[in-house]
Design brief:
single chain, 384 residues, six-stranded mixed sheet, two-stranded antiparallel sheet, 10 helices, 14 strands, 24% helix, binds 2-acetamido-2-deoxy-beta-D-glucopyranose, binds zinc ion, signal, MetalloPept_cat_dom_sf
Amino acid sequence: MHSFIFIFLTILTLTPPALTGSRRWQPPLGSPSPEAKHQLDKRWMTINLPGTAAAARLDPRPWPNREITYCFADKTAKSKLKTALKKAMDLWYSGGLTNDYTIVEGSSHVCSSEDSRREVLMISYGDKLSTYVGYPDKNSRLVTDLGKGAYATWTDRKDIGMLSVVPNIAHELGHAWGLYHEHQNPYFWSSAYLADGGGGSVFGPGNNNWNCENLADYDKFADGKEISPGGGLPHQHYTRDQMCRSYRVASAANFSAAEYLPMAPYQAHTPMSIAADARMVDWDSIMIYPSGAGAKKGLDPPEETDGVKDDRLSILEKPPLDGEEGDMQRIPKNIIPSSGDIEAMNKLYGSVRVEKKGLLHERGSTKEKFKKAFLGSKDSSSCV
Ligand SMILES: *[C@@H]1O[C@H](CO)[C@@H](O)[C@H](O)[C@H]1NC(C)=O
Ligand SMILES: [Zn+2]
């Protein structure tokens, strides 16, 4: 089972709302103060940082040379997703990502060669959003068992995630670079109720802001399921209630609650903040789900953002910050990576050597260019 490194979002709603306006891009936020930086340190959730003990395991890693080489699995994928992918990367730049992070389409030689398969992100077109997180270690099971490398299935549906194609792809691109969901940090979740929780106070029964029953596929699991979740949990029949409490159980059952529930600390690099309050969550992150993601319809009146109506019920909600009065609020659709997302990227890729990509890209044919790039990355992939 390698499902823990995939992020799926499958929404069963059928009628896309009309998309009548696009939100204006905001200018990048300034650098956080030293104090804010210290706080940011505690709240990222990324793949394991290079050089840490946890990263010595067979794990996904950061992409060599801060560059994702991608391939489209077929013509449909290319025609449906190519422009959106470029715009999605531009969203990252507009959020403050520097241009030493690049995405480049592989040549037809690279994209059809088994030898280079592990070194590219293979993108298919489908009706869901699903992305391998990070760059597979050359010894990882994904490589040895399946002979594959990183892959993604993306969609241009407008009735899913942030109800907008480019921000959705930008979120998926965050996964491809190595970021996990902001809201799945176990230190934000109540341990009293959630099997995989870590002892936070932001999400869970204390705040009553985890509305599992609003998930679009909730009704499908009324009878529970007989599954083997792994991780020391027995093969047995699990009830829906148990699926709403454990990431592992929900995952094994293919229940979308797995996109929300806290991941176990050993499954990702997770900051060791055990008393995370709502101030520690990056509510502006493009890696946090808006409240409606994956939810049943029925919100009345619907939420409206720049002319786009969202009548999906709330799954997770934002509690009032400590010391403040107020009600739970909908988590907004963050269509631009936040300064925290950028800081997380810079921390994750801080030790990744960057070659002079400008030169590499200018010289020679596309084919040569990629040959050179791959020679370089083969040498350097084990030292990231
Ligand atoms: C979950 O989905 C995977 C992949 O589609 C499938 O192989 C597996 O049998 C499913 N598990 C259950 C319990 O339905
Ligand atoms: Zn996601």
